[in-house]
Design brief:
By secondary structure, the protein is mainly β. It folds into 2 domains: 16-114 and 250-328, no CATH class; 116-221, no CATH class. The protein is 12% helix and 39% strand. The protein has 4 helices and 20 strands. The chain has helices at 43-49, 116-127, 192-205, 307-313, and strands spanning 60-70, 76-88, 103-114, 135-143, 146-153, 159-169, 175-184, 187-188, 212-215, 218-221, 232-233, 236-242, 245-250, 269-273, 276-279, 282-285, 288-293, 300-303, 315-318, 324-328. It starts with 42 loop residues before the first helix and ends in a 12-residue tail after the last strand. Mean pLDDT is 78; it is low at 1-56.
């Protein structure tokens, strides 16, 4: 059932699922044949008030393959494959993508890669984005199989520091950056505590709420806190450097078995199944949605802040079983609208 709600507005992370708004085809576009007309009450309000009984309520099962999710021009999460679910965070209310606090992304199994430039963007734009952040101007490169990070420490006299280290997963499912060499300017430093000193130690501790803590000579990063909502819930089981990428493996989830999308041979896609999805002006009980890359020669590039252009340039089809398939171009290929 389609419903009326405020227009889609930009929202964060992770994710990828905002492409679901593709079905709406914009506020002013007529609904496709077989699609119900919007009503005046939002689906989330109907479910919460009891005027509408949930159909297929619960987690929305999710599967992705070959998706480059672009959070901003410099920060890209290269999702090679992912199996998980969207979990509502409020009882009686389905995930609504206009409100990233209304759901969390539970990752059962996944492989996600990042370039050094994306890692630096994550730190500069999110982790150390505040005016009082202890570290600024982070740059990262991979050199001889190690991560090399240079950054400016906000001391009375700013210092350009270089850290060389290795990345791994902790038993708790976090990321560990173990430093093997530290220098401030051209002077070697014994450890992280000596590098930060009393001047910055309290400021560093204040970053723990954003997912960063220092344990001896290690940085511990919590993936669930690094980016804004919707939050991730998952366990990193391995972290390694492969070529010019940092590759993260998630595992240990309860639902690692693959889903069966409408077009399983599609090279790059996002698929949602079961539960209730609420996005834009629409709600979808018993979700069955597959978003397919229109140019599958390379990964599907989805750019959050430019998704409306991708939406207009794509098209959708309603299947005989009332499922939906959306074909979308990459974010840098939206100049010409696709033809069905």
């Amino acid at each position: 059932m389609a419903t009326t709600r405020n227009p889609l507005r930009p929202f964060s992370f992770l994710l990828f699922f905002l492409a679901l708004a593709a079905i709406a085809h914009g506020e002013r576009q007529s609904p496709a044949a077989g699609t119900p007309a919007p009503s005046q009450v939002s689906p989330a309000q109907e479910v919460a008030s009891g005027t509408k009984q949930p159909q297929g309520s619960g987690d929305v099962q999710t599967q992705m393959r070959g998706v480059n999710f672009r959070i901003d021009p410099q920060l890209v999460l290269e999702v090679r494959h992912l199996r998980g679910a969207l979990q509502p965070t409020q009882e009686g209310k389905p995930p609504w993508f206009d409100d990233p606090n209304s759901f969390a992304l539970k990752i059962d199994a996944a492989e996600i890669a990042m370039t050094p430039a994306s890692l630096a963007a994550m730190m500069n734009h999110f982790l150390f984005a505040g005016p009082d952040a202890p570290v600024k101007n982070v740059a990262i490169e991979i050199r001889d199989g190690h991560l090399v990070q240079t950054s400016t420490l906000r001391k009375k006299v700013p210092i350009r520091a270089t850290l060389i280290g290795d990345i791994s997963a902790t038993p708790e499912g976090d990321l560990r950056l173990h430093t093997t060499r530290i220098s401030a300017g051209k002077v070697p430093v014994k450890g992280l505590l000596d590098l930060f000193g009393v001047e910055l130690s309290d400021v560093i501790k204040s970053q723990e709420s954003k997912g960063l803590k220092v344990v001896q000579d290690d940085f511990i990063l919590d993936p669930e806190k690094l980016l804004p909502p919707p939050r991730m819930r998952g366990k990193v089981t391995a972290a390694r450097i492969v070529g010019d990428r940092v590759v993260l493996t998630f595992g240990g989830g309860a639902n690692e078995h693959p889903l069966k999308p409408s077009f399983p041979k599609a090279k790059n896609y996002m698929y949602m199944s079961g539960g209730i999805l609420s996005f834009g002006k629409l709600t979808m009980p018993g979700a069955d949605l597959q978003i397919i890359d229109a140019y599958p020669k390379d990964p599907f590039d989805f750019f959050l802040s430019q998704y409306a252009k991708q939406l207009v340039a794509g098209y959708s089809r309603t299947l005989p079983n009332k499922g939906l398939v959306v074909y979308m171009p990459d974010s840098d290929k939206v100049g010409k609208r696709l033809k069905p």
